[in-house]
Every structure is written in C-alpha cells, then in structure tokens.
Amino acid sequence: xxxxxxxxxxxxxxxxxxxxxxxxxxxxxxxxxxxxxxxxxxxxxxxxxxxxxxxxxxxxxxxxxxxxxxxxxxxxxxxxxxxxxxxxxxxxxxxxxxxxxxxxxxxxxxxxxxxxxxxxxxxxxxxxxxxxxxxxxxxxxxxxxxxxxxxxxxxxxxxxxxxxxxxxxxxxxxxxxxxxxxxxxxxxxxxxxxxxxxxxxxxxxxxxxxxxxxxxxxxxxxxxxxxxxxxxxxxxxxxxxxxxxxxxxxxxxxxxxxxxxxxxxxxxxxxxxxxxxxxxxxxxxxxxxxxxxxxxxxxxxxxxxxxxxxxxxxxxxxxxxxxxxxxxxxxxxxxxxxxxxxxxxxxxxxxxxxxxxxxxxxxxxxxxxxxxxxxxxxxxxxxxxxxxxxxxxxxxxxxxxxxxxxxxxxxxxxxxxxxxxxxxxxxxxxxxxxxxxxxxxxxxxxxxxxxxxxxxxxxxxxxxxxxxxxxxxxxxxxxxxxxxxxxxxxxxxxxxxxxxxxxxx
Amino acid sequence: xxxxxxxxxxxxxxxxxxxxxxxxxxxxxxxxxxxxxxxxxxxxxxxxxxxxxxxxxxxxxxxxxxxxxxxxxxxxxxxxxxxxxxxxxxxxxxxxxxxxxxxxxxxxxxxxxxxxxxxxxxxxxxxxxxxxxxxxxxxxxxxxxxxxxxxxxxxxxxxxxxxxxxxxxxxxxxxxxxxxxxxxxxxxxxxxxxxxxxxxxxxxxxxxxxxxxxxxxxxxxxxxxxxxxxxxxxxxxxxxxxxxxxxxxxxxxxxxxxxxxxxxxxxxxxxxxxxxxxxxxxxxxxxxxxxxxxxxxxxxxxxxxxxxxxxxxxxxxxxxxxxxxxxxxxxxxxxxxxxxxxxxxxxxxxxxxxxxxxxxxxxxxxxxxxxxxxxxxxxxxxxxxxxxxxxxxxxxxxxxxxx
Lengths: 505, 403
Ligand SMILES: Nc1ncnc2c1ncn2[C@@H]1O[C@H](COP(=O)(O)OP(=O)(O)OP(=O)(O)O)[C@@H](O)[C@H]1O
Ligand SMILES: [Mg+2]
Hints:
The structure holds two protein chains of two kinds. Chain A is α/β, with parallel strands linked by helices. Helix content of chain A is about 35%, strand content about 25%.
C-alpha cells in the first residue's frame, strides 16, 4: 500500500478557539480511514482544511496528496484532484430532481444547453452503483434521508473520486439504511476508492474501518490499526482520555403518579388532506418515568410530538392532552410551554436554533420571561443562565457569546437542550436527542435525563437508536405507520421484540 | 506595544462594519464640507439638514423593525403623503382642531399598517406584493383627497411640529455673554447644555457596558479604540449642538427624533419584544417552536411602521406648510436604503437602530451636499444608488472573508 494523503502538523485557529493543534493524519491508498473524537474535537474542521473550504494560507501545516504538496484555494480545486467531501449537513437542493442535483455545478452541457436525456441516463447508472432504483427525475424532497445520503454519494461518484470523505453520514439514518451505506463503502473500497469516515457510532467504525485516527481537543492522540477489528472501548478511551465502563448511567425506575395523558390523538397531513398521519394514538407518562417511542423513519413519531406541542404540525387535530389529570391547552406553542411541555426538535439547525445568534440568545429564547422584568431583559441574568447551562451540559465553547453557528454539531445540540431545560418543563419530549453526539456527551445527556426524572419530571424519548431506548427507558411504545402497535416494559423489551412488533403489523 | 496594535487591528477587523459606517459618515461630511466651501456645517444648513432628514430617520426606525423581522414595506412614502393630505383636509379645509387631527392621523397610520400587516402576517402574502399594492393605493388616495391640488397653509400651531424651536430656559444674560465670547449674534444656552449632557451620557453608558463586558470576560474593544471612538462621537454631539446654539437652538423635531431613537434603541436591544423580533427574522420556524407568536409580531411591526409613516407625513406637511400630491414620492427608497446602508441584512434577523440612523444621515448629507453643489437630480440618483450598492457589497465581502 502506498500513502495517498498525508496531513502534517495542521493547525487552525478561529478567533478565540484553537480548533486544530498540530494534527497529523496519514491515509493509505485503498483503505477506509475513520476519524473519531468528541464533539468539537476538530474533525469537521480538519476535513474542511483538507477540502479547501478553509483555503491554503488560513491554516498552518502541509497537505500532501498523491505525493505532491497541495494548496487548495477552494473546494473546486480539491474536487478537481478527486477529493470529494460530503458534509455533515446535506447539500442537496430539495426542490430539484436527483439528476439535476447530481449534475448541479458540473452540468453535461454543450454550448450552455444541457442534454437532459444524456444526464438522466448517466444518473441511472450512478444510482445503480449506489443501489438506488429511483427514477432520475424523482424530486429530492420525496426521498428519505437515507436515500438522500446515497444520492450524495452518487453525486460524488459522478466526479471521478479518489478520496471520498463522509462526515457523519449515518447520524440521521435508521439502522438498516446505515448498514446499506456501510456496505456501499466496502463495495467502493473493493473498487479502489479510498474513503475517510467521521462517525460517533463506534460499532460502525469497527465494522468498516481499516485504520482509526482519534482526535482529542484539536490534537491527534492515536492511530489504531483496525483491520482485524477494534474494540469500542479502546477508541472511547483515546477519545475521552479515560476509561468509560458504562454507556448508560444507572437509573432506578420510580414511576409516580400520572403526569401526561394523550388520548385518541388524530392528525391529518397538512397538505394532503385525505392522509391521516396519526391514527388514534393514546399514551401516557408518569412522573419520574422515561418513556421511549420506537419506530422506523417515517412512522410518525416526530409528527406525533410536534402536533402535541402547540399543534405545530398537521391539520384537523383531535384528541385530548391531560397534565396532572386535567385537560391542558396545547393549542399554541406558548400555551404548550406554559402547560409544562418542552420539545427538543430533531432538526436542530432549521427548527431548533437561530444560528446567527449567540449561545446566550438561544439559551433564553423560549423563556424570556425568566430573564426579564416587565418586558425588559436583564442582561446579567441572561449571561448567568447561559453560563450555568454551559457548565451543566459541558458545552465546549470559548464563551456564551459565541455564535451558535460556529459550534460543532454536538455542542449545538447541547444549546438546544439548554434552551428547553431553562423553561422548566414538566414533560420533556426529546426527538433524537443524541444524534451526532459523542459517547461522552451522550452519557452526560442521559445523566441529565435521569436527573429530570429523579426530580419527578416525565421524559418522552424518540430515538432511532434502539440500544439507547433499551438502555434508558422504563417503558417503550412502538409506532408504525402513524399508529401505536405495541407497548413494552423495559424488562420485556429487546431489539427483536420491537422489530417484530413493527413487522407483524 | 506590538500586542496592543495587534488587538486593535483584530478588533477593527471584527467590527469592520460599525467602524466603517462611522468612518464613512465622517468622510462624506468632510468631503462635502470642503467641496461646499464650508457651507455644509454652517448652523443654518445643519438645522436644515436635521429638518430635511427627520422624516426619513423616523421612518427608518420603523423600517428597521420591519426589515429585522424579515419583511419590507414599500408603501411608506405613499402612506406618508396620504397622511399629510388627510391632515390638510381636516385642518385646512374642515377646521378640525390640530391636536385631534394629529391623533386621527396617527391612528389612521396604525390602521393602514394593520391592514397591510394583516395580509402579510396572517395570510402569508409576501410583503413586497402587499406593500407594493399599498404604495399604489395610497398614492391614488392622496391624489383623490387633494383632488390633484396642494392644500395649505397650515395654522402656526401645526407648523411648530416641524419648524418650531425649543425655547431657551437659561437666563438671557448667559446667552448674551456666550454669544459675545464666540462672536455670534445670539446664543442658545439650552442647545449647548443638551449637547454636553448627551455627550456625557454616551460616555457613561459606554463605560458601563464596557465594565460589564469585562466582568463577563467578553473580549471588548481595546482601551485606546474605545476612547477614540467615544471622543469622536461625543465631540461630534457637542460640536453639532454648539453650532445649533449659534442659530435658533434646538428644533422641536430634533427632540422628537432623539426621544424616538432612544426608545427604539431600547426596544431593540433591551426588551423581550425586541429580542423576539430578531429571533423571528433570524429563523422563523425556530422562533415559532420556541413559543414566539410570530404572526402577531409581524403584525405589530407593520402597525408600528404605519404609525411612524404617519408621524413622518405630519412632520413633512408641517415643514412644507402644505400637503401636495407628490409628498413622499419615492421616499420609501431612501428609507430602505438608509436601513441597508446601516448594516441590516436583507434576510432579516440583524441590524441596529443606530446603524439605520447613521445610514439615514449618510443619505441625508449626500442629498444636502449635492444640492448645495447644484448637482442635478440625475447624478444625485446615480451616486446614491452606487453608495447603497457599495455599502451592501462591503457587507457581503466582509462576511465572506470572515466566514
Ligand atoms: N467558523 C468557526 N468559528 C469559530 N469557531 C469554530 C468555527 N468552526 C468550528 N469552530 C470551533 O472549532 C472546534 C472544532 O469544531 P468541529 O466542527 O471541527 O468539531 P467536530 O469534531 O466536527 O465536532 P462534532 O462531532 O460535534 O461535529 C469547535 O470548538 C468549534 O466551536
Ligand atoms: Mg463535525
């Protein structure tokens, strides 16, 4: 094997943050190289340096690609060399078709006129390579996240790729979709494509990676040969700098009196009025309970949560919501918040945060009354609150006056969580709360959940990661196609039981 | 020393927009001061400059909120003309008492804003279209009200709204003494006193904010820069008020304007509702899911804009001493330009009151200076257009470099 890429002593600073400090990375030709590290360790930044998002000259250190010194001034230049990056945030245009997206920016044009016939044919071939059978004219927004991810890869393949970089490709994927994607990576490897994958899902890393480089606090701490498998614990130890024996904090189930009761909840689709999205669902949460909702992507879990939370989704909503035994008014978000509900959205960037504003701004946003008197904000107490949550959640940032958009994905999630914790909810609904979050931070978030429930609050946890549901919940509801198909107590629950409930319906 | 210059530089780079704006205003004033042979900063002209721009600044305050909320209002020029006409019809043609007429006009402005805000907020019709319609409707209604003619003159009582001056409260002997000292014919002590008070206020507030920043470890501006900036700003205030004091003193409009600027700066920076407007413009969906009543907020921003346009219309009519069919024509463009020159972003969520005010002054000084120089309206338009483009380009360029 020969070396394809060598990054030497890369240092990258942002105002007030040293994101990378003398990082080294060596990638051999034809391997799958995983990069692991905690949230904010600098993984995405390293890849942005490599791909020219941060142009040569804005960082220190050298990049050698195929033996030559590379000084990319922009993404175009790195793409021309065959380095293709698929970012943490998908970059497809939802209103355009698959083919249009794939050829966006490098249209097969002759004299400015695109030959769509040719483009569609070509697209079909590319889609076949990634195992998609959709028509090239299908609109992106009609595809699930998993398929969109595959389209991104097809797009990468259209560009004659030598080094494929995937930044948390499976964060938003269901297990079987993730599996498909990882298989595709192995398939591409057998065709000679080298890839780099960044992931917080260490089991997947163990499955595909030949080599693992671990980054901690902006420094490369170790490179592990994983061709014969690697233990997750070993990676975790290097990531957090200590042994982590348990992934889930111990919790004592302590279900108290009835807290939240949702009865006969029905919701119709906001646009297609004939489609019923939620079908007569009833469920409840007791004080001190952590209740999970399992289900496949598109089973209506998010729609259920959002329709309860201030009718933020859907039409013709019917049913009752009771808190402490009395019917609660949840007809608007502010009323739902007043009633004691909080909802941590699944999509933090577009629904959870105001990216251009500071951590402080976002932290207090849902409870401005808590930091104001007679409508006048108290800047000191705002800062105090933001600082408190920064410490409690161990958010990594130089200060609470940092723009949220500049935080790493995992730290952004902590800010969303802080925002809702500050509203002092009775029932906290968490939608994919640990998506894109590192093992250490997950543990912290689980601990916060435990603290809340020990305090007599109720927690509803929607998650696509079954181990997480099994590890944290006292009770698990299973949803499929908008209806509840089962309820399992923690002691009876297993991945197999959940899956079989979904399948038999 | 080296480290110090470095941090000054870093701060300047990070706050390029704010300093750039201040610097641009100073540079533009200097250029016109020289080009006009000193006419620009003469007390008479300064007074004029304030009167001429008062209505643009007042509308810019309302427009900033609308733009921060992520919308736009193209109708303000027409609304302003319409309200002036309404005032003339009531006061001049029908002898309605002035205070009642003023109240009715402000309410009318609010209702107009509410009508437009209703369609934007609750029916989600793009504000560009709703207010474009409003622009046509109210221009037409102005013509209809005035029957194509100018109506005037207004009684004195109404004119003071714009052309009145605040009487000096200090003993006349002080004024006479100071007048002799500076070699002016008369001297308004109140004006100078207000200037000094304002300057001290600026410095005190700045120092307070600075010590708070330091307490929370916010990396605040280097000492030298802080003082340079404050000396310039407070010096300019004292200078302006000194100049005014050698003419007729403090125009009523300046008082109205100063109070409004202070109120709006407070609302945008320190209140819950202000915060929510920024959140709404920054990310409407996230704001909504945080319990913010986004529709109501949009509605309020438009109602407020309507009231401000009405106030501007009254001041304009009072200054002209008549209502004309052309009043406020194309003025919405100056107002919107002022807000964008002042650093607000087209997509909403950012922009400051003080920026909009400085932006309005930049436009105002250019209008005034070019008129003094006798530059034709054709060139004036071209130059103003280019300045707007340059300001926004500077913004975008800066963002890209930092991003
Ligand atoms: N544009 C920026 N301005 C300032 N700081 C930044 C910027 N981009 C990244 N950072 C900071 O650099 C550090 C590394 O961020 P990066 O996004 O590389 O983390 P990551 O390892 O990808 O984390 P995650 O697993 O959460 O995605 C973080 O502390 C982040 O706040
Ligand atoms: Mg990342």
